[in-house]
Amino acid sequence: MAAHLSYGRVNLNILREAARKELREFLDKCSGSKAIVWDEYLTGPFGLIAQYSLLKEHEVEKMFTLKSGRLPSADVKNIIFFVRPRLELMDIIAENVFSEDKLHSSREFHILFVPRRSMLCEQRLKEYFEFHTSYRFVAECYLENDQTSLYHTAKGLMTLQALYGTIPQIYGKGECARHVANMMLRMKREFAGSQNQILPVFDTLLLLDRNVDLLTPLATQLTYEGLIDEIYGINNGYVKLPPEKFAQKKQGEASKDLPTEPKKLQLNSAEELYAEIRDKNFNAVGAALSKKAKIISAAFEERHNAKTVGEIKQFVSQLPHMQAARSSLANHTSIAELIKDITTSEAFFDNLTVEQEFMTGVDTDKVNTYIEDCIAQKDPLIKILRLVCMQSVCNNGLKQKVFDYYKREILQTYGYEHILTLNNLEKGGLLKPQTSSRNNYPTIRKTLKLWMEDANEQNPNDISYVYSGYAPLSIRLTQVLARPGWRSIEEVLKMLPGPHFEERQQLPAGLHKKRQQGENRTTLVFFLGGVTYAEIAALRFLSQMEDSGMEYIIATTKLINGTTWIKSLMDRPECQTP
Amino acid sequence: MMKSKPDEEDYWNSSKFKAFTFDDEDDEFSRLKESKQAVNSIRRLVEEDDDEDDVEKVSWSGEPVGSISWSVRETAASNQRTDREPAFPKINADTPTVSRSHSGYSLSSLFKGETALSDSSVRLYAPELRKPKSEYKDYVSDWSPEETVHRMQQGKAVSLEKFRSLQDKLLLLDFSISAHDGNVITAVTLFTITFTVLFRELESRQTALRHFIHYLTETRDQRLLLELLRALGRTEDIALLQYKEHLSIADENKRRDFLKSCLSLPFSPEDSAHVQDHYTLLERQIIIEATDRQAERGGKVEIFQKFPRRASILNMPLITTLYYCCFYHYTESEGTYSSPLNVRQTFRISEKQFFVTALAARAKLKAWVDVDALFTSRNWLGFTRKKSPLGFHRVVDILQKNSAPTQVLQEYVGLVDDAELRISLAQKHKCHDIIINTYRDLKDRQQLLGYRGKVERGSVEERKINELLDNPQIRWKN
After folding, report:
1. How far apart are CA B73 and CA A62, in angstroms?
2. A51 → closest Cβ in B14, B66, B215
3. Among residues 127-146 of chain B, which lie with CB inside 8 Å of chain A?
4. What is the interface pTM, i.e. ipTM, of the complex?
5. Structure pTM?
6. Domain presence at residue A550
């Protein structure tokens, strides 16, 4: 099922296997039959490492969704709650447990906090259970998958090093990167005496703080995968799409009842075609799909040439594979059509034009008419905020007059309570009035070549293809680090927020790699605070460039796009009506 | 080498794929169409097969069978069934669970002996993670502040009681901060803070401060949080925090009174003006709502009968309120609370915003006279001419969204300055006159000839074009 994880240079199945092992051990600790009560949010992440069958083998007999009220009946010895450390969930657990009390006195309750336990939640539970000491709560930390806390990032990186060997070189940029590196070095001192004897897989670790590059996530991603995420949102490798284009039209059957449920598709590199097109600029996807269609048609045509029984048998044996390819082609053709409808719309084009103007530094110091018009026609607030923040970042802060104007228009149109959201964006540095008269964005743009005229979308020769012209700052920093090195851009590094640094970790003698001629080096790039699909595409592109001599492995705290990112900074985004 | 051309042709003609040509057209749409056609024709070829033949089994809800979220639903569903049918004789309630959860996925696991090993076909080497030595040192007591923090990070029991002096406490706090573990920082902060006394100390320890503020926010300890912020002099944060409270007040009168009490809070000057506006707006909405609800119920006011209000105006944004007033109270004199002009003045709404909103509201009512009046201004000679604070193409856009008839649209399309934009808009909205006149003004004979083919035979438009083309006085550029 997860075979695609083993193909790459770094065998990610090891990591998955370690997580599964931890899960098995945890389940075995609670001996006897069990029922799991799931925080629904977690079923997705857990689905990445385990299937129901694995849980069943460890005596998990029932599974429920966490809901207030009474637990559904289940004749089991243990009830295990798998939850995120959220206060409101603690209240539900308490309610569940209390309603259970009289019926099964011998039952044990456990809580597994994912990704980590939290003092706050334990306190809340204590309030409930002060007088019910008969309950035994086992709180465990588990699965570092979506954690912004720096301590847990550092711990995760230590785990990674335990599995893949000590990483000899650490580079970083930004405040959080510095903290994480410091903690890693301190944790390493704790291990002093017991040397890690695994031959290092990674040569370099690069820690990048999202604060260093606020611009990239605000831009609309233009790769295939990036656009799917921008438009429909990818969650744990799944996407939900409008069903119309996926209606199965059979011959002679009128398509009268269209499906109304959204179509749910899994997206990962196990699917040959998706692996081929996910990182392409969307404008190159049509050509790739049509090429694939020719190949598949030709393969099916082979049957005309099959004359002997042997040949026919040969053809038939290939049918399942060909059908899988056909169905994959069908799905991606439909998705591409859905996206095409949007990317060819006037609204999409206008929005993109303004983004590109900002990124190239055109009129960033004036009130933008397009933004003004969008506010006047009450476009979704997130779209407005994305553009205004982008203008602010590209101008190193907005002129006070412009800032006040936008703020007022937004509050008048969307409601005064958004003062709170605007305040959050200000604190995050995304939207601010200009403090110094010097705008250093143009210098950064020129030095790092953030804007490339005539980016080649079909046969890219530079990472700027992922945004059709804009080269993501974060990835440029990564690229320059590999060659010619950060020393060449000292000036610009100083303009970007936070310190930059380099650390070395001693390897035991004998573990130093003897590099073969022409062998690639491997860098682990860790994005603190999230990364976009387009940035990942750009890094994969760098890995594939023949003369780069560098392979990149990507790690992050979460996958983001402009919309999810702004949403996370909004005050009570759930109250927003689109 | 590639096949020669005739060969290739034969090849395709011989197959079923007649409609499927590869003309190497570079158009994106036709490409997508191409692969779609290919897909469909291939589907026909393999029709007899099951449609969901590959990759993974998917249940009705679209979840892959065997995935965790699928199973949660399945086991819960089977459980519900036993709850729902208590009257049935008790046949082992668990049977459906077993048979269903095995459906399609792991029949084989029924036959597997060694369950623990069967979860992955490929066994992988998953090494033990080493643990730092401090974890083994569990049974000594009397920890240093540093050790205490380490133990807390590992989730072990510690006693903080022995850190009594202020100095000890601060030492402990500093170690916890340098550990960057939010849990520990919060725990230590809570322990060390004998409130007000230590607020000052926290100020020099921003990280601990952040965690403490987060703790107070989460536990909704508003009083203490405000006290802390006050001691720290973070006045704007206090103001915003208190202002935020209004969101949880449902009753509009209470909310208004609360907002009024916010007016004296130390906001920044700009925010202060916005909060003032917020209060004024709600106050006004309450008055308008009461009056209009009564008018609607009374059944005497025509506009409320013709266009019943869909929702209350309470707590709507300012521009929405303005739209409402332009819709229901357009002609009121400036003295009333609900008069659009009064709203505009009170809240200093920009000319453009006011214009767009009024335009949309009047167009929605099909009050074309009002729409017309919005644009009319007189110059000093007394001639009227149309003026607009926003481009006429946007005006057309708004009118069209409110389904204005072609005659009305035509008038505004004609006012678009840019000839190219004017033509494209005119074509979109079928304003023949404008197109014809524009081509005439551009002296573009070719375009005019082309357009003649697009209008109806024998129509007024055709005649007009013919007249123009025959007119010897026009000096065509082509």
Report:
1. 10
2. B66
3. 127, 129-130, 132-134
4. 0.74
5. 0.73
6. no
